[in-house]
Amino acid sequence: MRRASIYLALVLLVAVSVVPFLWMVATSLKHGQDIYTKVPSLLPLDRRTGAWAATLENYAYVLQVGGLGRAFLNSAWVCLVLVPAKLLVDALAAYAFARIRFPGRDTLFVVLLGGMMVPAVTLLIPRLHVTQALGMFDSGWGLILPNVASVLDIFLLRQFFLSIPAELEEAALIDGAGRMQIFWRVVLPLSTPVLSVVTITSFLFHWNDLVWPLVVLNDPDLYTLPLALQQLVASPDGGRAYYVMAGATLAVLPVIGVLLVFQRRILQGIAFTGLKS
């Protein structure tokens, strides 16, 4: 009886999570006249005959007229450039805080952690001023360079680097390896789980980021997917439910694909990040 109750609760939780997604996909495949019916349906059926009436016209509209095709490419370009650069910068900083002794190291690390307590919204104006001063306002680089480092990712990577036995690095030093050789050939190969987590979470965050592109971009040709989707919702014709759901489905598909493919890596990285040597 207890096990049955647990299974029932799990089924209800899954339904709460999955049904809205199925509703979104079904609505994106419906004609306008088939959306608002007396009896709601998760299937794209004709409201008069009940026959299958799925259509891809909504996707064609949002990709061409709604501008989501160009925005999709913009988001892909930003993520492909930003995520590897961010991973490299964060890993180098984390390794320095974990293994290299220099004056003020621990104090600087505490200051960085303290900066995480500052609400991100309060930093928008200073970041915008710096971006404008560097000539990157309303450009793709204005999306990339201000986000090329993350204190949270540095913290996660540092904690994992501390769990790697120092004896491995000492052996490499005895063999004549330098710091960068140790970093590339010893530390990084052993850090695949946490590197996977940082890569995936960074991709998900920047793929879905709306606030910073909204602040730094004016040119519609540079809009990322969340910003283009927001503009689609606000437009007179594009704001119709079937267009919005088609755009939302396109936006969420890469996220679902990444989570399905790398979910095991995510769980392994979360588990390993907290381990101590």
TrEMBL record:
**Keywords attached to this entry:** Cell membrane, Membrane, Transmembrane, Transmembrane helix, Transport
Q: Where is the ABC transmembrane type-1 domain?
A: 72-262
Enumerate the subcellular locations listed in this protein's record, separating them with semicolons.
Answer: Cell membrane
Q: How does it sit in the membrane?
A: Multi-pass membrane protein
Please, which domain of life does this record's source organism belong to? Answer: Bacteria
Question: What Pfam families does the record tag this protein with?
Answer: BPD_transp_1
Q: Which residues cross the membrane?
A: 7-26, 75-97, 109-128, 140-161, 182-207, 241-262
The residues the entry assigns to the signal sequence are: none
Taking the first listed entry, what is the main subcellular location of this protein, grouped into a coarse class? membrane
Q: Which family does it belong to?
A: Belongs to the binding-protein-dependent transport system permease family.
- This protein's name: ABC-type glycerol-3-phosphate transport system permease component
Q: To which species is this protein native?
A: Nonomuraea roseoviolacea subsp. carminata
